[in-house]
Fold this sequence. Notes:
Helix content: 25-40%
Keywords: Signal
CATH superfamily of the largest domain: Zn peptidases
CATH topology of the largest domain: Aminopeptidase
Shape: elongated
Low-confidence stretches: 11-18
Oligomer: single chain
Organism: Tenuifilum thalassicum
Amino acid sequence: MKNFSLLLLACMLCFANVVAQNVDSLMLKKHVYLLASDSLMGRGFGMRGGRMAAEYITRQFESAGLKPWEGKYIHPFIKTGMMIKTEGANIIGWVEGSDSLLKNEYIVLGAHYDHLGYMIEGSDTIVYNGADDNASGVASIIEIGRWLVQNRDKLKRSVILVAFDGEEAGLIGSSYMVKNNVIPIKQVKFMFSLDMVGMLGKYGGVDLVGNETLSEGDEFFYQLASMHDIKIKKTGSRIEPQTDTGPFGNAGVPSVHVFTSTVSPYHQPTDDANRLDYMGMAKIASFVSDVTVKLSNLESLKPENKFAKATADKNTFVTGISFGAGRAFHLYDDEFYQSKVGFAFDIGLYTQFRLSRSFDLQVEAKYLNYSTTHTYGKFRTHDIFVPVSMLYYLNGRSDSQLFPNLFLIWGGNYSYRLSTKVGDGTYSSANFKDHCYGLQFGLGFSIMNANIQMVRYSALSSIDRNVAANPNYFIFSIGVNF
């Protein structure tokens, strides 16, 4: 991004540090009052009010002059989970760039339009109108889109504007878009999520979380914000996982969450249209539209090196540490009984290799300790334990930080016995084999950076050279990704 300094210097000379607003605050206010009205019943995901909002946004995209993506604005999807199917839809319009080569690279401006819906308390219907969260962001991308259409000759790269559905239910719309390549994700060079941008005056600035995921992005954003007289409060190289930047960031796209904090009545019924700072919204929207034009004209848009490496590694494998506890017993194959149940625990490291959307290969290395009963007294062993498992995701692995991934577990394991003791030691530890092999099966789920697994391990052979005693254990484990 070697042209940043010259580009910004030229901008400063042209605009003398403060630029005119590109976006009309009255139009923003009109959109918010409509989208956050009681008649839309809180725009719940999969609800009638959400569909009404989608229809309104579609009409506004069309009237703004945005082109429909692949011939249509409404891109429906179905979210399936726990025997429930929910229909949602992303609304997509775009402005084609003017450069014959760069027009095939995309900048995405997104904002989710769903909110929390409503609840019934006695005879009262309480509507969560979600003016700041996130009618403010949707109104902004509509008007930014209108301005970009009017200034399309200034764009070299193409710009895609998306109103996402299902964000409040777990980033469902944005995750669907990325995973199903609704837009060619490899050609997306940058992403903005405008989520809660209606409180500039009260907050005293704007957060641009993720600005450092773009190469030289820190300096770039600070200088342009200064030209628009906007104070940047929070920044960083971390992608915000709880808004629609999450799936794009996980795919390696530099992504910035534009945000005026939770100083509004966040997730409260009082998040109403009369509370928003519309002049501040226009200021932010003008800043974003200006940034978009500048980014569309840069010679190259590249992710920051550390971010690029981290996301590449994350999409290939994840590692973590886990601790588990449960029950253990010996199954005596030649008898009609099993030993009394004892206590088992393990601790170790794991790596999950991403094979596809539905399958991971999990390799673990653990210290295992368990106790049970034996003919000669209490049995205790210390093992090095190496399970290798396939994980099958029942609904495909989701990048959402809020929606759990349910998976089945099956595979094989090897254990090496470090030491074994039975009773008072009169029964020699030499009677026990050093090596043991077995199978495992179980169930697990992951959410955010946590992995929860419930697994049954069964040895295929006896550990005792004199008696057919097959170790079995059931372990409940909690893992945390690094």
